[in-house]
Every structure is written in structure tokens, then in C-alpha cells.
Design a protein that fits this description.
By secondary structure, the chain is of the alpha+beta class. It is built from four helices and three strands; from the N terminus they run ααβααββ. It has one domain: Arc Repressor Mutant, subunit A (Orthogonal Bundle), CATH 1.10.10. The longest helix has 24 residues. The protein binds zinc ion. The site of zinc ion has 8 residues, from β1 and α3.
Length: 106
């Protein structure tokens, strides 16, 4: 109805931020997506804080938070690692014992 093609998967955080910078007006559909992303960020932050100082991997974040798309967990952990007291590094996940990219609250 609004002429905007529906995407098969949610936008990633980097795409959202990039787009938000370019667009001074925020269409309602974008606000909904940003709201969803912010909610996921918040949930991932809480989850990471609960496990702190143990590291957790993206797949476990996606699974525990019931995210549709593991890329969302990955985007969220990238975002948190930058500026929310989290660090992202290659290590062993506390939950699944797999070696890979994990996130940990300082
Ligand atoms: Zn894991």
C-alpha cells in the first residue's frame, strides 16, 4: 500500500543506522523496524549482563531470545560491543562450548 517492497528478512542494525542518517523524515514503517531492533538490543544487553562475565555466542543469543534471524543477534552483539560495555572476541561460548565469536559484558 505504501509502495515499499517488503523484505524477506529484517534490516540489520548497520543498514538501519545508515538509512536513518540519510533520511531526515522517519516513515512509520521504519519506526516500527527501529523499535524492533532497539528491543532486540535491549534483550541482548540484558542477556549478556545476566551471563557476565561469561561470554556467549551469536547462535546462543538468537536461540535463547527466540530471534528469527541469527544475523539480528550478530548485529546486536556488534552494536553492544561498540558502546555498551560489551566486548566481542573469538572465544568459547559459556552455553554451548563452541569456539567462535562471542560477546561478554565487561
Ligand atoms: Zn553458544
Amino acid at each position: 500500500m505504501d509502495g515499499i517492497a517488503r523484505r524477506s528478512r529484517p534490516l540489520g542494525l548497520s543498514e538501519i543506522q545508515h538509512f536513518s542518517c540519510l533520511s531526515p523524515r522517519r516513515p512509520a514503517w521504519e519506526g516500527r523496524i527501529v523499535g524492533q531492533i532497539m528491543k532486540i538490543l535491549d534483550e541482548v544487553a540484558r542477556f549478556g549482563a545476566r551471563l557476565a562475565p561469561e561470554p556467549v555466542c551469536d547462535p546462543c543469543i538468537a536461540q535463547k531470545l527466540s530471534l528469527d534471524d541469527m544475523a539480528l543477534a550478530s548485529d546486536a552483539s556488534h552494536e553492544l560491543a561498540g558502546s555498551h560495555g560489551f566486548e566481542r572476541f573469538k572465544g568459547v561460548c559459556r552455553l554451548c562450548d563452541q569456539n567462535g565469536m562471542v560477546i561478554r559484558r565487561h
